[in-house]
Queue: 2 jobs
Job 1
Amino acid sequence: MNVVVCVKQIPDPAAPGALDPGTKNLVREGKLILDDSDAYGVEMALQLADAAGGGDVTLVSMAPNGETSGLRTALAMGAAKAILVSDDSLAGTDALGTAKVLAAAIRRAEPDLILAATESTDGYTGTTPVQIAELLGLPSVTFAKKVEISGASVKVERQTETGYDEVESPLPAVVTVTAGVVEPRYPSFKGIMAAKSKPVDVLTVADLGVDAGQVGAAGARQEITDVAEAEARSAGDIVVDEGEGYQRVIEFLEQLKVL
Ligand SMILES: Cc1cc2nc3c(=O)[nH]c(=O)nc-3n(C[C@H](O)[C@H](O)[C@H](O)COP(=O)(O)OP(=O)(O)OC[C@H]3O[C@@H](n4cnc5c(N)ncnc54)[C@H](O)[C@@H]3O)c2cc1C
């Protein structure tokens, strides 16, 4: 079972991010870290490869400046190798351009299964994985909360607003996993040391044979027109229990459709 995990390397969310005043894009000059959202995909891939009795977990990432810090974290968790696409001409690449680059890199790995997060922590358009599936001509299953391999198929419990759907798809397929699908392991000291010498294949747009006019700012069909501060959270409702508080709680949970 060969699994590819799409791994986005992002600026540390704990440090306030800066926006380029011209393009309003996030500045990605410093060290990038493994997006927490993708740690679930890495853990899921490791568990599926183990359950299948073998196979490799390959990471695929597109990031500027030959950045591998986030990839090394995922390699320390146990992934075998990584493909990094890094090229100055990719600056300004939008979600579809990113999908084109990642799809070309994934094709090289010839995986049985491709995992990604439902959305990244910094861009969170939630569109890249389904675009990858379309470009590769593969089925996609989104919002997986449980993933199981059964012969040449993947069985997925797909989170919905009211519960979950059971979906079965032939392999290869692209599956996006939700946060909490598994508990990501912490890299061990041995894993961290081993990760330093695991292979990371660094490729350019030309290496992948991707049309340079389809990526970068020139190929982008998305433009960031404005960025605004998120609204501050409201204080919430305080329910004073005078014997019937439970009814207010039930009504609230019903509104959220969790009951
Ligand atoms: C106009 C515009 C300009 C941009 N310019 C730049 C730029 O100059 N430099 C730059 O680095 N980024 C840039 N980006 C962001 C970059 O292209 C994003 O990676 C891409 O838009 C994916 O969007 P997202 O974060 O919303 O992914 P989502 O669709 O929310 O991601 C879902 C999942 O897909 C996978 N995934 C997404 N992106 C990557 C990736 N890059 N590598 C591996 N896996 C991935 C991950 O598993 C992720 O959790 C730009 C985006 C836009 C819209």
Note: The chain has a mean pLDDT of 93.
Job 2
Amino acid sequence: MPADVAFRIDLPHGRCVGVRIPTGVEQDNLLSLAPGLASLAEEERDYLESLSPARKPTWLAGRIALHEALRDLGLDAGPILTDRRGAPELPDGVTGSISHKRTLAVALAARRLDGLSIGVDLEPVPTLPPSPSEPGWDSRPDISSRVMTPEELAALAATPEPVRRREVVLHFSIKEALYKAINPLISRYVSFQEATILPHPDGSVTVTLALAKQEGPFLAEARWSEISGHLLTTAAVRPG
Ligand SMILES: CC(C)(COP(=O)(O)OP(=O)(O)OC[C@H]1O[C@@H](n2cnc3c(N)ncnc32)[C@H](O)[C@@H]1OP(=O)(O)O)[C@@H](O)C(=O)NCCC(=O)NCCS
């Protein structure tokens, strides 16, 4: 029996599985993930043991989600450890990515054809109280200038709060998904200024890469949607 699967869906960039992470329990209580834990390989269980109690549930839920997504595609990647950059270590012919927040982990998986590399990210949908003067206003710092390019900031300039805040988080999430897809191809840190994106209401995204070291060329795509109270973003990058 699989762990607490929240959804399994086909997205344009791959098979996506979400796994609920237990909350309201001791951080190291992995009980509701136990069926998935039992299905992991010994190497994965050993790696899990080396993690802090706070990291165990998210790492485990992410691994379970990725194994489930691969199984849905008829693929078995064997034990999925972590490579030196922090990405899931997958065999030739397979590409996949993981993201987790407090209550939910997701994984995206696909066959690796033509050098395809994919990424996924998850962010809770920001709460949208009507104005900063009202109770419940989200007082987290504004990350727009760190995450967005001058062109993106200009496109957002006319957007009123609180929609603006949601757009900033959406840009952040799409760029994290892009990073997870690009990083395995170029093996270096990619800054938030190296991609300009324009998310559209239908879930499509216009992506323009401006890689500082001129790697590539690459074809880069991204998509966004909402699921289980989260923004779910995906990216696909291939040599082109
Ligand atoms: C690595 C990074 C993307 C992780 O994002 P996060 O919001 O902190 O955490 P998430 O839960 O979404 O993702 C964590 C997962 O990312 C994956 N990951 C970590 N490093 C990775 C890398 N270099 N490449 C691909 N995937 C990676 C791992 O699977 C990890 O989960 P696990 O350790 O349980 O296996 C982020 O910390 C980071 O360093 N970003 C770099 C800057 C950036 O995004 N630039 C944008 C360029 S357009």
Note: The beta strands are 5-11, 14-20, 94-100, 104-111, 117-124, 195-199, 204-209, 218-227, 230-239.
